[in-house]
Every structure is written in C-alpha cells, then in structure tokens.
C-alpha cells in the first residue's frame, strides 16, 4: 500500500505544530520538511495564522551578499512612504547599501492597462483602511492629504539630478517629500509645498532650480520605470535583493537569514 500521502499528512501536521515555535527554525530546514511544506506555508499565511507581509518577508532571504538593495518608490504611493521609513534600517541591519529609484507608478499602470488601486471602487476603501493599520503597526505618523494624487513629475526629475551628484542627499530629499506629503499634507506638486518639505535637507534654491530644469534627469525617471520591467514590477514599493522581488511596505523586514520574525507571529485565538 502506498503510504506517501499519509506520510505527507503527518509532515503537514508536524510542520503546522512547528509554526507555534516559528522563531526557532531556520527557513532552510522548513523548506526541506516535505513536498507539502511550500503549499502549507502559503495556505497558513493566507488564513491569517501568520500575519506577515513585505517588510517582514525580507528576513527570510539570505542577505550574505553585498550588492545594494534596489528600492522602487513613488511619491504618490502611501505604502512607498511607509517602506521608505524602514528600508534603510533593514539594509543596515544586514550590512547592505540601498539604491533608491523613483518612478511614476502611473506610467507602469498605463503600460499594464490596469486601474490604480487608490482610485478603484471598493478596493481603494480597503487600501486606505489597511494603510492606517500598517502605519499604526509600524508606529509611523500618517495623514491622508486633502489633494490626492498630485503631479510629481518635477520632483521625480529633481531626485535623479540630485542623486547623480549625491545619492545620500537624494534619499534625504525623497524622504522629506514623502513625509511632507503623507504626514504634513503639503502639496508637493506645487513649488511652495516642495520648498516647505525639503527646507531642512540641505537642498538649496539653486540646486532645486537646476534639478527642475534637468531634461536628462526627466528621461532618467522614465527609463527607470521602463527598466524595472525586468523585475516584473507592477507597482510600488518594490524592493529587489539579489534579483529577488519583495513587494509592499511590510516586506522589508523579511530580507535576511533569520527566518520569520517573532514580531509578526500572531498565534490563532
């Protein structure tokens, strides 16, 4: 009599039990449990026994290499804002640098012929509720701006102008704009809102004016969105670690060798 199915069921039960001590096992050991393991792991996450998402998933990944983590974001994406407040800490934890890449997510949506989730009926209602939950979970202040969305072409262009000379300053510039829009409610589609947001970044009027007039930087923003197709980018935030994609504001934590973080473990009941 073939007992392979019964053996598989036994492995499923054993693996399910092991989830209650999830911080104790390395991911490599779990993957080798049985052919049932990947299916069970996915179904367990889907039914809510593991409340993990993108920033946490990066902790699953082997971060022993030293190439930068690519971070695709857009100013009009609130989840990009949440991710931007976490990605540097996660990368530093594993001794990795980051390479920030600002794109127009609407350009991606147009190419894919999809409706942006933020304006899709029903889905947008859920997403903004989920946004509030994630912001509270990660203790990140957020306030939905009165004007949404805003035209961000000029500040995307400015990001690449600044990045060419000083990548660290470009990150500070982007962080200030994201925080200015998604926490302070500044209209970063207007010069006054941009100036108010970046006032303490070290980007002065001369640099900002040059950035906003840089046609090559404008093309760079479009090129980055086009090039992201190699990673099958369909939205932001998206993080790429050694070719592996991690999508969502809650995926940065799971980049790493330590397996599932105990911080995201919520046993049922």
Overall, the morphology is globular
Coarse structural class: alpha+beta
Strand order of the main beta sheet, please?
2-1-3-4
Count of extended strands: 4
Task: State the helical fraction.
Answer: 40-55%
**So how many helices?**
13
Give a quick account of the main beta sheet: strands, pairing sense, barrel closure.
Answer: 4 strands, mixed
Given as residue ranges, the uncertain stretches (5+ residues, pLDDT < 50) are 1-56, 257-269
Using the CA coordinates, give the radius of gyration.
21 Å
Strand content: 5-15%
| Ends apart, CA distance between termini | 38 Å
Average pLDDT value?
A: 75
Spell the H/E element sequence: HHHHEHHEHHHHHHHEE
Task: Outline the fold blueprint.
Elements: H1 4-18, H2 27-31, H3 37-46, H4 54-57, E1 69-73, H5 78-84, H6 87-93, E2 98-102, H7 105-112, H8 123-137, H9 153-165, H10 167-182, H11 191-197, H12 205-212, H13 215-227, E3 238-241, E4 244-247
Parallel strand pairs: 1-2
Antiparallel strand pairs: 1-3, 3-4
